[in-house]
Specification:
426 residues; alpha/beta; Diaminopimelate Epimerase, Chain A, domain 1; seven-stranded mixed β-sheet; five-stranded mixed β-sheet; 13 helices; disordered N terminus
Length: 426
Amino acid sequence: MKRVTVFLICILAVFASALPCSAASVRTDDPLTEAETAHLESLFAAVREAYGIEAFFLINYDYEGGDDFKEYARAYLDENGSGEDELVFAVSSTTYYMNSRGKAGELLEDDDLGTLYEAIREADEDGRQYSAAVQFYAALDQLLAVRTGGSGADADFTEVREIIPGSVPIPDEISPVRGDRLVDQADLLSAEDEAALQAKLDRISEQLQFDVVIVTCEHIGSRTPMEFADDYYDYNGFGYGENFDGTALLVSMAERDWWISTCGYGQTALSDDYFLDYIDSSDFIDHLKDGNYDKSFNFFADIVERFVTEAKTNEPYSDSHRCHLWSSMFEGLIWAAVVGLIVAAVVTRSKYNNYTGAVHTKGEANEYMVGGVHLTAQDDRFLHSHVYREKRVSQSSSSSGGSSHRSSGSHTSSSGRSHGGGGGKF
């Protein structure tokens, strides 16, 4: 009998470990750490204490939408809620949906569905489900504080930060001395290449009084690429002058992310609207995709040096003052001339051999048609009756040269400094 009991307990343990880790107030597809679970439970409790409302947050991508998804969300609310003043905000693979009851239904308005989803949209589309949950509670607290005239819930809506083994540590305090400007934790470079690149970054940084930093890692923990790059730059003591002039390039191999953080004069010399478009369509991205990391990082360093030098001696590069790599252009012109001569020789030879003095035309226009374009229509619907559902629309990102990136715009990092920059996938 004891053996049977032990066997059943083991089976239950294995089954439980396979389920998504979640708090009763939050359900996600991705496992949550103990710290993340405890944090979300504290946010649930803080909102309940401040407003008397139980707010549940669900992500389940196994559903696409429709009545099955709505029934699933309602059932979760019935099972976990008190049955009175409560709401559930649920996100599927294609829709988001809210059902509010009692006081929650009285305080929240029709447009709040879209407001709440916009607060979590980026995290949801990036697959950062814990972040989405934190941002949901933060946005809900702001809405309810306005509606009730209160001061907001007594809660910390910043995310729990945990360093995953293999990620580059970030000190809690700003170091008084700059660390190495190149940290290749992901081991993408040979020892010789690393030493040469470190020397180049030091030379550029010291000559221009503008820190140029590169960090590679396997994981970045629970931070976004933007947050990690900003924090790494800030908390490792980088930056010249009172505005901490400089830039940092992050390459994270876990999700194949690249991110460029700019600070101080970096936001002027390496502008989001021109520099990012330039770098995104350059050899920097091509080398990253091909695994030529040494070439990619050296290209980045060279371009930063060119941009900062031009900004300090003349004016920052922009759409009206464009940067040209004359060596690449000259090489391209040579190849174009060679190819043009070859094509001209072949065409001339062909005409000489085949000319008959006759011109033939096609009898029907459709003989010239190649391929086709097919357009399909799609409906978006919005349902309301204390039950909300709306089609999710993916955000578009700017693209150039077959790659894509997004700009962070000017923002404040966790240290309180102003940063710019942007990044993407490779």
